[in-house]
Amino acid sequence: MDSAQIETREMPGPAASALQEMGKFGNDPLAYFEHLAGEYGDYVRMKMIRGEGALLVDPNAIEEVLVRKKKHFIKGRATRALGELLGKGLLVSEGDFWRRQRRLAQPAFHKDRIAQYADRMVALAGAMVDRWQAGQVMDVHDEMVKVTLAIVADALFSADVSRHAGTVGRSLEATLAHFQWWSRYAFLVPMWLPVGPNRRFYRAKRDLDQIVNGLIAERMAKPEAERGGDLLGMLIGARDEDGSAMSARQVRDEVMTLMLAGHETTANTLTWTALLLSENPQVREKLEDELRRVLGGRPPALADLPNLPYNEAVIKESMRVYPPVWVLGYEATDDVPIGPYTIKKGTAVFMSQWISHHDARWFPDPQAFKPERWADPAMKQLPTYAYYPFGGGERMCIGKAFALMEAQLLLATIAQRYRLDVAPDQAIKLDPSVTLRPMQGLKVAPKAA
What we know:
The chain is an alpha+beta fold and 449 residues long. It has helices at residues 18-27, 29-40, 59-68, 77-81, 83-86, 95-105, 111-114, 118-131, 140-157, 165-185, 196-220, 231-237, 248-279, 281-295, 309-321, 353-356, 400-415, and strands at 43-47, 52-56, 73-75, 138-139, 328-332, 336-338, 341-343, 348-351, 418-422, 430-432, 436-438, 443-448. It has a single domain (3-448), classed as CATH 1.10.630.10. A hairpin with a 4-residue loop joins strand 1 (43-47) and strand 2. The protein starts with 17 loop residues before the first helix and ends with a strand. The relative contact order is 0.17.
């Protein structure tokens, strides 16, 4: 369709006031997006406190924003606000600066490079499971956050961060909690206002900066041959085509980005997987059978993953049912045709994995947890942006391969040792803020598999 054929009328959308609509969004973002998509379809106009918004559900429209017409969009306001913590890290930066940083960081995430972390992932997961006791109720989300943070810290800093692990963990949780609160109520409380949540955020940021900047300075002061082969050493040693390197500030921003994004989403994936396996014992039994057949009780290794297709399918299906990144937000920098409509400059554009991954057009019986669906040849015909847990286009998550390897190795380590039965009488509420996590954790009682 050429530009002359593009409709100039508005997308369909609710008639209520912006204040009413944003109140609904703040109360329950998932239900709000479900209502919009169910009532108005693949293209929905949203009323917002500041300007206009649009929810895009059509996979072709999502691909236009993320791939074909990406030059007309920047990251949305909520993501840009993360720059208060992440500076100009890959998640937040734009344009030529982003492209340079991505080019410099990419070699650190080559498949051969990340393969060296597999054994440490399994060792750290094994140490966690060794501490568990059958029948002792615990918060599995807290356990997954701790182990994935330990893994990303180990990959970034080797052993250098171990002495700061407690402070780093608490500070990262505090900053994430702040952004989860802020992303829902940002139109009421600006970041600069010195209220309690903002003050707690800046204290946590100060503590993180002190530790991370100190570690970077220590490493940069060493001779090049002694800087190590971990991710921090790779980032410091990276050189552009003209021989230039990242500044200490740029290294800091990428380290903060990797620490935050590199543990939170995988922790959420494993937490929701524990819930789904507890609710679907037939899936759990099939997974355990595969693990017994392939591993025979020994710890998994990277070379085992191709022989564990059901283990992989469980992770893929978990990320479909409970996508850890549940929405992507962008902002139009120009008037741009998307599908049959024109997105106006300044419009906030939302694309929700929560909506796409539960769309019955692409996933029959979408509420059901069916890892077997990924073995169906028809799944290969899915539109590319019907399932996009790691985003897409040139800005697809740089750590995708790392995260998938980690999730599969940790699941294989845990599931062959313990069944994590969800403790009864707990309200499991979704917290769709920066990521999709359980609002009050997830209590489980481990039982020997």
